[in-house]
Amino acid sequence: MARMYRVLGFWCLVIGLMAFAGHMTEFALLFFAQAVAFVFLGYLNFSERTYITMFWGYMVISFVGFTYWSVFKMDLPF
Question: Is 25 exposed, middle or buried (0-12, 13-18, 19+ CB in 10 A)?
Fold first, then answer.
């Protein structure tokens, strides 16, 4: 399970590099920070239950953040 966190870190790094190449600096910095966090957590060798619990927490926070941003921060499309 720890290896999957390192894989998540790798893909966050790839997405961050593509965003940086596309001149989306804030988006790229967000994914660089996530990549560092995932790789760091991947080397801590927690139990599988801990990794799954952390991933559920990450998903809840990201979905709440995405919903907040898309409802309250983005302008209406019309």
Answer: exposed
Contact 54, 41 (CB under 8 A): yes
Q: Which residue from 37, 28, 44, 27 is spatially nearest to 58, judged by alpha carbons?
A: 37
User: Would you state the structure tokens that stand for residue 8, as one six-digit string?
Assistant: 């998540």
Local structure of residue 44 (DSSP, 8 states):
S
Q: Are 40 and 72 in contact (CB under 8 A)?
A: no
Q: Is the pTM of this model over 0.90?
A: no
Residue 77: the pLDDT is 73
The predicted-structure confidence for 33-75, as pLDDT tens digits, reads as follows: 999 999 999 999 999 999 999 999 999 999 999 999 899 888 8
